[in-house]
Automatic annotation (TrEMBL):
<protein>
    <submittedName>
        <fullName>Exodeoxyribonuclease X</fullName>
        <ecNumber>3.1.11.-</ecNumber>
    </submittedName>
</protein>
<dbReference type="InterPro" id="IPR036397">
    <property type="entry name" value="RNaseH_sf"/>
</dbReference>
<feature type="region of interest" description="Disordered">
    <location>
        <begin position="227"/>
        <end position="249"/>
    </location>
</feature>
<dbReference type="GO" id="GO:0006259">
    <property type="term" value="P:DNA metabolic process"/>
</dbReference>
<dbReference type="GO" id="GO:0004527">
    <property type="term" value="F:exonuclease activity"/>
</dbReference>
<keyword id="KW-0378">Hydrolase</keyword>
<dbReference type="GO" id="GO:0003676">
    <property type="term" value="F:nucleic acid binding"/>
</dbReference>
<feature type="domain" description="Exonuclease">
    <location>
        <begin position="5"/>
        <end position="176"/>
    </location>
</feature>
<dbReference type="InterPro" id="IPR013520">
    <property type="entry name" value="Ribonucl_H"/>
</dbReference>
<dbReference type="InterPro" id="IPR012337">
    <property type="entry name" value="RNaseH-like_sf"/>
</dbReference>
Length: 249
């Protein structure tokens, strides 16, 4: 496959351990000769044996049972076959990619860069009220998304398929370089997510409140407040580097 390709990944897990993956799904997005990106037919999912019983809390989300994965391969054996296909891919992508990056370590991915469609959606569609994978699906109604292929939700292939349509549209509105850059930073929230100023855009927040929020425990709030302070001319603070070990909202 010679066309530039990005592989969208989605994981279902059976717990919080480093090998607790019980399913991996994927969907490729490719760039055509006209420069436009499209969702292709290369998609799939594989069950994974997490090596121990899964928690009822996680089973209640994806409905994958211990008996379903009893004869499946272990994560370390199956992950490289999906994360490093036999053709070149430019990057891996996921919605809230920090979660997938906990399990898809550089050793398994070969050090491929990641795109977080959640972070990129905040930048490209800041007017939207919510940014979860499924809310974006129904707020935006992406062209060409076959409803049935994207079901059931909370299974790896359908979720990757939905995310791939967001990625395609993001790539057709912004450059790959922009998406990679935005994904390497914390999320730039379009509005204050909580507190007395909840729902307000950052340009409506007082300087003093912004300075308080610039020290918030949440990395995305800190980053968003500091970005607005910098826009107002305050001395930029050292960059905040997001990592897969960061907190998840």
């Amino acid at each position: 496959m010679s066309n530039p390709t990005i592989r969208v990944i989605d994981l279902e897990t059976g717990g919080n351990g480093p090998n607790d993956v019980c399913e991996i799904g994927w969907q490729d997005v490719t760039q055509g000769a006209d420069g436009r990106w499209q969702v292709n037919e290369d998609r799939g999912a594989l069950l994974v044996n997490p090596g121990r019983p899964m928690s009822p809390d996680t089973i209640a989300i994806h409905h994958i049972l211990d008996s379903h994965v009893a004869d499946a391969p272990f994560w370390k054996d199956i992950a490289p076959t999906v994360l490093r296909p036999p053709y070149r891919i430019e990057a891996l992508a996921a919605h809230r990619a920090a979660f997938e990056q906990r399990y898809c370590t550089p050793r398994l991915t070969g050090g491929l860069p990641w795109i977080c469609t959640w972070k990129c959606s905040l930048r490209v569609w800041p007017e939207l009220p919510r940014f979860s994978n499924q809310m974006l699906r129904y707020l935006r109604m992406p062209e060409g998304l076959v409803h049935e292929i994207g079901l059931p939700a909370h299974r790896a292939m359908p979720d990757a398929y939905v995310t791939a349509h967001h990625l395609r549209d993001l790539l057709n509105e912004a450059s790959l370089e922009d998406l990679l850059a935005w994904s390497s930073e914390p999320g730039l929230l379009p509005r204050v997510p909580s507190g007395a100023d909840r729902g307000k855009t950052w340009d409506r927040i007082s300087d003093d409140t912004l300075r308080d929020l610039a020290e918030d425990r949440d990395i995305d709030i800190r980053f968003s407040a500091r970005t607005e302070l910098t826009r107002r001319g305050e001395q930029p603070q050292p960059p905040i580097v997001d990592t897969p070990q960061g907190t998840l909202l």
